[in-house]
Amino acid sequence: MQINGYEIAISEEKLDDIFANQLQVFDMIDENFAGYKELAEGDKKALKHLVIAAKMMNDAALEQDHPLNLSLKKGLEEVAKTNSHAAKALRLFNSLNGVAGLNGIDPDPIEIFKGVHGYKGRNFYPTDLSVEEFHSIIIKMLEEGKIEDVRKIVSARTMVRRKENELMAIDYTEYFAPLFSKVANELELAAHYSTNHAFNDYLGWQVQALLQTNEDMDQLADKHWAVLQDTPLEFTLSRENYEDEMTPTIFDNSKLSDMLNQFGIEVTPKDMLGVRVGIINKAGTQLLLSFKEQMKNLAQLMPFADRYKQNITSDNELKQTMVDVDLAALQGDYAQCRGGITTAQNLPNNDKLAVKLGGGRRNVYHRQVRMTVDPERTRRMLNALVTQELHPYYNPEAEHIFVIGHENGHSLGPNSSYQNALGIYNHIIEENKADVISITFMPEYVKAGIISEHTLKEIYTTWIVRLLLKAKPQLIQPHRIGDLIHFNFLLEHQAIRFNSEQKLEINFAKMNEVMHKILRETIEIQLSKSPQRAKEFIDRWCKWDELTEYIASTLQKLGIKPYKEIRINL
After folding, report:
1. Gap between the Cα atoms of 421 and 486, Å rounded
2. Biggest alpha carbon distance in the chain?
3. What is the pTM of this model?
């Protein structure tokens, strides 16, 4: 079966097996959802336009991800009308939200078409551009005084293309101008119907950010979004830079890095665009706000707090909003379900202008993601790998509390100048930091009366069980690399052990001491601004041995659903 001259690489039988046994479905809300029925009529109409905007914006992420995504998706959609093999390949394409991607288990990317591979620079850069040529072109342009051209090339918001023997950067607002104009129109319609003035004000700024080639507009949209707390609806245009593996290679080239520093050029990987739409859940949001109240106290408890400026200090206003959201749509970056799916986010990231200029941040939690669990598989997993005494402490809702601590943790510690200096290891160390902050400071929530000692043990247990990996992670999976670091650190420092039956045991009495130790080492690495220090730390704690292989093989035998499907129902 060929689509636009490319042969589908996965048999129909294999696709049937994926959908029958390896696919986890995440249903977004529909018109029968109680929260939807409670909305004002204007907000219901606004929500529909926001979902349309999200679906439109997905095309931008597809274009950023691979040059053939849009054409091959269109080809699949046409042939799928009359061919079951194409229809199933299209379903997998929509799961990965692209022609290729990791599934979190297999070491190599899943590729839907023969000969169609992913690229280090995605489609942010020319697909025939090697790392060596990229560096040499940038060096030559700097030597020729083309400073501002280079500044745009290594910024977060541009698509880069060849221009004779050089490279040229095209701002997203120019590259995607026709698409962004259509999205902006849907946002204006949503603002016309929406009943909340603050939300409408934000949408207005987001429209301008889509239409103007001006980073200040993104900054203003981010600032207005970050203060939204009491609104019926949620709309996020996310910009995160985990996917670009080309730009961070600059940090491995000392000559090029020194030249860029000399000219005051900040290097930031490219932003992949995503869109989230939903309805604010008031009850869930109240729980989040109880944790927010402790953040100033936690900032003072951070290691080496006197050596860096934090976003949160005891004498400043806490610029942090938090909402729990029932999801209507996840598109773009959110929908690239390549071995995982986002459960929550803390935005804007530290590299964004809004944060650098003192704007606030916002945590958004995804109810439909965290509430999709398989109790029977959980039971079998616990029986296979966890000592019986710990079973009562395993509680999926405890993972939600851990995630709250994780997202709050991104707002603590050294700022983006320290984080970005770690180059390709930036995201691994930062995600590791957020995890470690969450678990390290959970006893503080006990002291504050927010959680009980029993809940603390549930959080420890559920988080540690989460560290039992299904496959050896790769560097482009920062969260999973962090899990492996934590597992080995806890094991070596005797906070956990595996008994003679190869089942997990936890020494609760050592958890506090060990977590403070790894947090201290993590902050030291960020303060060092040394990619070498970061690499040494990762190499030291990313051991994959007989025990981790045994755990992974056991989990795989129990059955894994590495593929994710998001169903939008509005």
Report:
1. 23
2. 68
3. 0.86
